[in-house]
Amino acid sequence: METVKKIVIIGPESTGKSTLCEQLANHFETLWIPEYAREYLEKNGIDYSYEDLLTIAKGQIASEEISSYQLSAMSNEQSAIHDARFTIHPSLLFIDTDMYVMKVWCEFVFNKCHNWILNRIAERKYDCYFLCNIDLEWIKDALREYPDKKVREKLYQYYKDIMINQTVPWFDISGSYDERFEKTVKIIEANNF
Fold first, then answer.
1. Which residues of 4-16 are buried (b: 16+ CB within 10 A; e: fewer)?
2. Is there a contact between 97 and 53 (Cβ–Cβ < 8 Å)?
3. Among candidate residues 183, 186, 162, 164, the one with its CA nearest the CA of residue 174
4. In degrees rounded to 5, what are phi and psi of residue 5?
5. How far is it between the farthest Cα atoms of the chain?
6. Residue 182 DSSP class
7. What 3 state SS string does 18-69 have?
8. Distance (Å, rounded) from C-alpha 172 to C-alpha 113?
């Protein structure tokens, strides 16, 4: 049975995380997990509470679990049948946002973080992180909160500090949307993720 390799795309808002996840999933013919927060806030409104962030975190994990199960099942079916009709490559799962993002969000807005989120950070395993730099132009939408460059720099540094102090391989991704995609594909292929 082939193991699903989980690749997480993180960074401040409006840094191209969702776009990059979707491009990578299309390129590698696999699945990606959208940021659950967007779905939740679109449905429930943008006036969120500290408790809402825990609900969002649990929704993000649930989405990840469902997609991991689907890819594992596809991988088993593909291995058992060896049928050329199967074109999906279920060894990679691209994840837009993980519990590090939830930690940053909780601490930046509420100056505290739910123990449930911290425990998920400690127990969940990933294969690689790509940290999206803030060099893309901030694009306004109804759910984004931080257009100020200094705030974006502060948030980016917060993510970078987290990446430096954890053990999973990580890469800083910058440039245009196309450059980010091309760099990320090269890194994934070179490192056999």
1. bbbbbbbbbbbbb
2. no
3. 183
4. -95, 125
5. 54
6. H
7. HHHHHHHHHHHCCEEECCHHHHHHHHHCCCCCHHHHHHHHHHHHHHHHHHHH
8. 25
From CA 72, how far away is CA 137, in angstroms rounded? 37
Helices 99-110 and 115-123: crossing angle in degrees, nearest 10, is 150
Closest-CA residue to 16 (of 159, 175, 190): 175
In 10 A of CB 24, how many CB atoms?
21
C-alpha 143/C-alpha 64 separation (Å) is 22
Looking at residue 95, what is its pLDDT? 96
In this structure, what token pair is assigned to residue 84? 């050329």
Nearest Cα to Cα of residue 158 among 98, 100, 114:
100
Spatial separation of the C-alpha atoms in residues 40 and 51, rounded to whole Å: 13
Q: Is the pTM of this model over 0.85?
A: yes
> In a 3-state reduction of DSSP, which class is residue 128?
strand
Residue 104 CA to residue 48 CA, distance in Å, equals 15
- Whole-angstrom distance, CA of residue 73 vs CA of residue 67: 10
How far apart (Å, rounded) are the C-alpha atoms in residues 135 and 165? Answer: 23
Residue 72 is which amino acid? S
Chunk the chain into consecutive blocks of 10 residues (it has 193) and report each block's average pLDDT, rounded to whole numbers. Answer: 84 95 95 93 94 97 86 57 45 94 96 98 96 92 85 96 97 97 96 84
